[in-house]
Amino acid sequence: MPSLVGLLLLVAGFVVLMQTFAWIAGLGERRALSHPVPPEGLAAEVPEAPPEPTLGAILQGANYGLVLGVLACLLFKLWPPLMLALSAAGIGFSSRTLVQGWRRYEVLVYRALAGLMLSLASVALHYLNLTGQIPDLW
């Protein structure tokens, strides 16, 4: 016989799921109302190219890469698959920031470089941990 608490949690989860669907439908409706469809006889306008990222946005990516690299290095013993995902995300953010900074502004972003090095070092730490070359201190 299923427990009453489990049944109540299942109903509450279903209600939250339905509210989420209604919220997403409302967002789609607002977007459709803000972008009216042009009449069929008129030529469709050419969509504009997406704006290029500013230096502030590029530096934000560098900060993400640095924070993820530091977290992956500090917490590499907790749960290796999750920490490897943090390492991969840190490598992705940092390398994208380095490429964008160099191509668009000809600037070497040192935070991104540090984040990339920390993320790569965390991969090495994971390897050393999995092969048993780092002793358990906890």
What can you see in these coordinates?
This protein has 138 residues and is mainly alpha-helical. Helices cover 71% and strands 0% of the residues. It contains 4 helices and no strands. It has helices at 4-34, 55-74, 80-105, 110-130. The radius of gyration is 24 Å and the shape is flat.
Question: Could you outline the blueprint of secondary structure elements for this entry?
Answer:
Layout: H1 4-34, H2 55-74, H3 80-105, H4 110-130
Helix pairs in contact: 2-3, 2-4, 3-4
List the defining traits of the structure above.
mainly alpha; flat
Question: Can you summarize this structure?
Answer:
The chain has 138 residues and is an all-alpha fold.
Instruction: Kindly estimate the percentage of residues that lie in beta strands according to DSSP.
Output: under 5%
Give the uncertain stretches in residue-range form: none
Query: What about the largest sheet?
Result: none
N-to-C series of helices and strands: HHHH
Structural class: mainly alpha
Shape: flat
Distance between the termini: 42 Å
Number of strands: 0
Radius of gyration from the alpha-carbon trace, in angstroms: 24 Å
Mean pLDDT comes to: 84
Counted by DSSP, the helix tally is 4
Helix content: over 70%
